[in-house]
Amino acid sequence: MPHIHIGKRIKEVLDASGFSAIEFAKEINRTRDVVYKICAKESIDTALLQKISEVLEHDFFNYYSQALPVIKEPGKIGYIKKTDLISSLGDELKEFKKKLHSLEEQYETLQKLNRLQEEKLSRLEKKGKK
């Protein structure tokens, strides 16, 4: 799993947020000095990280979960990482969209053929009644 310096990530998001260190400290019920210490730490308590995530409206847990295995593939050894799974699902979705588009075109063609057949049948029935 890649090394994550969560304090640096928090500082980046905090700097972009518009919060001052004092305002942010109040929001997480800490002092300004503690905020600076948080930004310097490589890891922090999960309850505090949850509060920080809420205040900054940023999912800091995602940095960790992206690297974790999420499912074991049936019949295979090993796990799929979230990023690989998302990429794979994205590729599958593109293929399904292509197939759907092709099926929609085929359906429209069949509807046109059906209308033509119905018109032809209707004309034949009219000729037969005369």
Keywords, separated by commas or semicolons:
mainly alpha, 6 helices, 434 Repressor (Amino-terminal Domain), 2 domains, 70% helix, 130 residues
Summarize it.
It is built from six helices and two strands. It has helices at residues 6-17, 21-27, 32-40, 46-56, 62-65, 82-129; strands at 69-72, 79-81.
Number of strands: 2
Q: Write the element-wise H/E pattern from the N-terminal end onward.
A: HHHHHEEH
Structural class: mainly alpha
Tally of individual domains: 2
Q: Name the CATH class of the largest domain.
A: Mainly Alpha
Q: Which descriptor suits the 3D outline? A: elongated
What share of the residues lie within helices?
over 70%
Q: Compute the CA-based radius of gyration.
A: 30 Å
| CATH homologous group name of the largest domain | lambda repressor-like DNA-binding domains
Widest sheet: strand order? 1-2
Model description:
The chain folds into two domains: 6-65, lambda repressor-like DNA-binding domains (434 Repressor (Amino-terminal Domain)), CATH 1.10.260; 72-129. 70% of the residues lie in helices and 5% in strands. Strand 1 and strand 2 (79-81) form a beta hairpin. The model has no long low-confidence stretch (mean pLDDT 88). It has helices at residues 6-17, 21-27, 32-40, 46-56, 62-65, 82-129, and strands at 69-72, 79-81. It has 130 residues and is mainly alpha-helical. The protein is built from six helices and two strands. Strands 1-2 form a two-stranded antiparallel sheet. Helix 1 crosses helix 3 (32-40) and helix 2 (21-27) packs across helix 3.
